[in-house]
Structure formats: structure tokens, C-alpha cells
Specification:
By secondary structure, the chain is an alpha/beta fold. It contains 13 helices and eight strands.
Length: 338
């Protein structure tokens, strides 16, 4: 896949996004009902194969229109006229051909009703370039998360393109048990999962391949889970967290979301914390109390836009640092500075 090409020109990537969105919306519309198989084939009929009624069809079309901003091209009404998954993929491609600058992702709803957040595609691409530097020499991406949420989209749609991987290097492993990861994975793979996935993967009796790197998000990953998968053979596990109040237009705050929660088997001592008082800053590595030169007004425009390095040789503030984060927490401590 070419890094500079539009992500949606890959039919496999767009199919994954649309199919995951349809499956996720149906699960939300049908709470407590048994889930049907994940829609994957282009010839799948929404009504005949998934049992979608007229109200559900309208809800699904509205969700896809909102996510891909199909209303910008005026093509969204075709979603109601076409009832095949392959048709929806073609309609989405036609709409993105006219407008691709923004995408809308919904929050998980774990702390309330899901809220739509608009993100500029240019900002998301910038983030994946930063992520690509953290995952060099990856040969495949094994995804255990849906692609229509921002975590899955960044790691399973945009990141493989930034790494220059071919389309067939992105493999959906949600149809397999986490305990079978040792059989599926190869050296050089990146596994994109969540805490429950890694908790189950750690129970495997067969050791994991060497040079296997993992990522986790959607919820805090407990230290015992990180340590368990390390003992099973995982080289490193990266935890991705977001600010408590994500801002739709502030992609820079999300660029700071990646924190390395395990290294050489000592995840409990290398965990990075955030004081929670700085709306757009996080110390990626622990900072020396006298090393940072951030403005006292951490929420000012200059502080939000500044990327600085600590003058201490032992630490670096990777995203923007604030005076409260860096000066209140000694570099050798991992507790919250508040």
C-alpha cells in the first residue's frame, strides 16, 4: 500500500471499515439479541442475510453517512436504494472521491451516550506517521479490534499504509481465540488488541513468537496483564490512552496518547502517568523537576503548540509538557503528580 494514497482506494480497507460499522451499529440496535456473523462478502444482502428492517436500514445509512461525511457529496440517499454491502462500499468510494478531508468517530459510550467527534484526515495521517516510528520493521498487522473506531482505524487502516505494508498484511484475527495467538502470529508482527484480549492471550501454554509487539487500548491495561503477556514471550506492549475529554479539533492532544507501558519485563516501573490537570499535555517520559521550560500557563496557545525536550539527559517530554506535569513529579516516580 502506498503511504500517500487515499486509504479508501483500498477496497479491502474500506470493506473492513464499512462491515465493522454495520456490525457495530446492529449490535447497538439489537441489545441482548444473538449476533449474526460479521458481514464481509460484497454480495451480502442487508435485508435478506442480516434481517435489517426499514428503521435499522435508515439508522445504518445515517451512521455511515455521518462517519464518512457522505452528505458533503450528496450521494447518501443511494444507501437507501441499494441494499447490498458491495453497493454500500462503492457508494462510500464515490462519496470519498469528492470529499475525504474529515471523518467522524463516536466515543465508546462507556461514560455516557456515545458522542460524535470530527477529525481531520490530515491530522490522523500525521499521528500515524508518529506511530510508524514506534513500530519499525513490522511485517504484518493482526487486528483484534473493529476498524470503525478511532483506535482501530489508526492502527489497522492508516498505520499499515504508513509502514508500507501490502493489503494482505492486515489480518483480522477476531474469529480466533486469543489463546491461539502463538499459533497465528509470526516474528515481526504487530498485534492490535484490548485488555481482555491480552488477558486471554496470556493464558496460552505455547510461548509467543520472538519479536512480537502488541498494542492495547479501549480501557486501562492492568500491570498484571502486561507482565503476564511478557512472561508468555511478548517483546513489548504499548498502551494507548486518550485525554479524559477528547477535543474534536485537537489532534495534537491525541498524538500524546501513546504511552509505553512495558519494557524488558518491568511494566510496573515504566508506566507513565498524567496528572489529569493539563487538557492538552502529557509527559511521555518522566521529566526532571528542573528540566522543563514550559510556560506557567499550560493551557495557553503557545504551550499547546510547543514541542519541547527536557534538558535532562535522563528524560524527554515527547508531546508538549506543562509546568505542573514536569515540575511536580520527580523523574524517578510513577505516581500521579496531583
Amino acid at each position: 500500500m502506498e503511504a500517500g494514497a487515499s486509504w479508501w482506494r483500498s477496497r479491502a480497507a474500506l470493506r473492513l471499515f464499512v462491515a465493522d460499522l454495520v456490525a457495530g451499529e446492529l449490535a447497538h440496535l439489537r441489545p441482548g439479541l444473538p449476533l449474526r456473523p460479521q458481514p464481509r462478502a460484497d454480495d451480502l444482502m442487508l435485508e435478506a442475510d442480516l434481517g435489517v428492517d426499514s428503521l435499522e436500514l435508515m439508522a445504518l445509512a445515517t451512521a455511515l453517512t455521518q462517519a464518512l461525511h457522505l452528505h458533503e457529496s450528496g450521494i447518501e440517499d443511494w444507501l437507501l436504494a441499494r441494499r447490498r454491502l458491495g453497493d454500500w462500499i462503492e457508494i462510500a468510494q464515490g462519496g470519498l472521491e469528492h470529499f475525504e478531508a474529515q471523518l467522524t468517530f463516536r466515543t465508546s459510550g462507556s461514560t455516557g451516550a456515545p458522542k460524535p467527534c470530527v477529525h481531520a484526515l490530515a491530522t490522523l495521517r500525521q499521528e500515524t506517521r508518529q506511530l510508524a516510528a514506534l513500530f519499525p520493521a513490522r511485517m504484518r498487522v493482526l487486528c483484534a479490534v473493529p476498524a470503525h473506531h478511532i483506535y482501530g482505524f489508526l492502527f489497522t487502516v492508516l498505520l499499515p499504509r504508513a509502514l508500507g505494508l501490502p493489503e494482505d498484511a492486515v489480518i483480522d484475527i477476531r474469529g480466533s481465540l486469543p489463546a491461539s495467538l502463538a499459533r497465528i502470529a509470526r516474528p515481526g508482527d504487530l498485534v492490535v488488541g484490548h485488555p481482555d484480549f491480552w488477558r486471554a492471550a496470556a493464558t496460552a501454554t505455547q510461548p509467543l513468537p520472538s519479536d512480537l509487539i502488541g498494542a492495547t487500548s479501549t480501557a486501562p491495561c492492568p500491570d498484571e496483564t502486561s507482565e503476564a503477556v511478557e512472561r508468555a514471550g511478548l517483546a513489548r506492549l504499548f498502551q494507548c490512552t486518550a485525554p479524559p475529554k477528547p477535543q474534536a479539533s485537537d489532534g495534537a492532544a491525541r498524538t500524546a496518547m501513546l504511552t509505553r507501558c512495558s519494557r524488558t519485563g518491568r511494566s510496573a516501573r515504566t508506566r507513565r502517568r498524567w496528572c489529569g490537570r493539563c487538557p492538552a499535555a502529557r509527559c511521555w517520559k518522566r521529566a526532571h523537576p528542573t528540566a522543563c521550560s514550559a510556560s506557567a500557563n499550560a493551557t495557553s496557545a503557545s504551550a499547546r503548540a510547543t514541542t519541547m525536550r527536557c534538558r535532562s539527559a535522563a528524560s524527554t517530554c515527547f508531546p508538549r509538557a506543562c509546568a505542573k506535569c514536569c515540575c511536580s513529579t520527580h523523574w524517578s516516580r510513577t505516581r500521579r503528580c496531583g
